[in-house]
Amino acid sequence: MGCFHSKRVRPPGYEEPVILSAETPFTVSEVDALFELFKKLSSSIVNDGLIHREEFQLALFRNSKKSNLFADRIFDLFDIKCNGVIEFGEFVRSLGVFHPNAPLEDKISFAFRLYDLRQTGFIEREELKEMVLALLHESDLVLSEEAVEMIVDKTLSDADLKGDGRIDPEEWKEFVFKNPSLVKNMTLPYL
Hints:
The protein is mainly alpha-helical and 191 residues long. The protein is built from nine helices and four strands. It starts with 16 loop residues before the first helix and ends in a 13-residue tail after the last helix.
């Protein structure tokens, strides 16, 4: 009769841990652990081996229905192929920026793209205000409109070195070097 080997079914976009380990700060065993997490997340609502926006939001905020600018932006940045879902390779590569050994430059770039809501290559005043409001909302903090405007104005005056009313990637980098707390939450001690 003989025996047969059942091949493990891999989700769409699956990439070998050895390859992902070579391209990210993760070890092979960390990539294996991330695959287990990915499987759990990708089957929480739709069991198709892909992470959908609602599953991502459910994982981050325990709510798949409530609209959330912050979660949407992170999802969009993780969705490297811009196809509306996160595949395993995208998941690992994107999480790599949060690894303790990820270069600071990568963290700064990710944070810049997070705030650059309209993807113009600049963080403009309205984008900054939208993100401040979203972050306050997620933290259940309520500030007056005047206080929010003061935060936005102060941030722009400190970061906009050219005085053109927007923050470019180099200005952002300088601003983060002066205010490292802006990226301190971008390092997870363990995954």
